[in-house]
């Protein structure tokens, strides 16, 4: 092991120890399941904003997106544009209304519980259906984060992928198991800050070391697809021009935001609407800078790493940020520890998403399915114990899915994002803004949205190809539209909501709810 690698290891060890310490600190403060899952609605504006965005972006931000831009050019930035639009709409349209409604709907603690209370579902059909969807798709989502962690450790320390995956999963599991929601949010705040610093410093430093002339020359010499002009053209996808379907598919990523339980729970947990207004501004600025610089990393990294061209050997294009940091901070031994801290920024992106997903999945399985359906009389302390056990089980299952070292981070995230966004996005929007929406409509929307994505992405119905591969259209577009239409149609064809539901809706719409 070289001295540079030793300093990287020291930085990683210090960072991971800090995360576990935070988990241990909050473990003593979790007296019941409500504290474990929502932190008593006590999030401040800064923590809520950075926690929501850090848990949202995952290793995809620092590995998946830069890797796509590195390989194919700035045309891959359409996803970033869609995500930025979705983030802004989520914070400015959804957040305050959802926080208010969860308070009015019997102080709902979890996402499925909100749906149950919003539609007065005494048969708990919504609770069960939404919990199952969360568990299924979040398993895939968590696996993507663990896979990213495994690739990071394997690339930096040269260890076996399986061993690397095990180390990353163990640390994430440790602090999530102990500290619950507040530990996750506090660590996410630190991780979001670290991600932002790394995104800003590394590409700017690499560009400063090259200069504009070297950037253009190295891009040309590395045989970028479509030449330098095509590579930097927002409407080029590799060597071809983007079609309308491709642009729509990438912009459609923004639709997923209003259906992401791990983001929506941050809105529910903010201590006041005043703090929420602060969070909106912070989150918008953070995501604009982060997405923009992730695209810049892909472009600058292509030139800075030349004559090495990632993807032609054993090193994947998704490692572009890792390779940039390694080259920048190993020339001088005194900089190695700083390089290790920046590499922790990638680890932060991974951990901030995986911990949130573990917690949401555990809440669905233990509080919603077990306490909500199987054993309604279970005490809060018993649910807390079961929640921690569920966190362990979910982590193990996600670990098994992530064991394939050839799994694409981008592919896993894409499938999970589409499934959750299609199942819950239209349901959340209409539950907040359409008083005629009812329980049968919500059930139809959740089931149809999730099933559409599974059919579109996994079943070969078009001459041996899936419909997604045959058409090039992202499954989120089709799933979201299907869910939306069915909620509208089924709600209008079935019994209208009763007076109690309508009164709750009007209380929220008029702002009469306090909390």
Descriptive overview:
By secondary structure, the chain is an all-alpha fold. Helix content is 76%, strand content 2%. The strands form 2 sheets. The protein has a two-stranded antiparallel ribbon with strand order 1-2. The chain is globular. The model has no long low-confidence stretch (mean pLDDT 84).
List unreliable stretches of 5+ residues.
Answer: none
Number of contiguous helices: 20
Report the end-to-end length measured between terminal Cα atoms.
55 Å
* Secondary-structure content class: mainly alpha
Q: Looking at the structure, what is the overall shape?
A: globular
Strands ordered across the widest β-sheet: 1-2
Radius of gyration: 22 Å
Average pLDDT level = 84
Helices and strands, with pairings:
Elements: H1 3-27, H2 33-38, H3 45-72, H4 78-104, H5 111-118, H6 125-157, H7 161-210, H8 212-221, H9 227-231, E1 236-237, E2 240-241, H10 244-251, H11 261-269, H12 273-304, H13 320-328, H14 336-374, H15 380-401, H16 409-433, H17 439-458, E3 460-462, E4 465-466, H18 467-471, H19 475-493, H20 499-510
Short descriptors:
515 residues, mainly alpha, two-stranded antiparallel sheet
Q: Quick summary of this structure?
A:
76% of the residues lie in helices and 2% in strands.
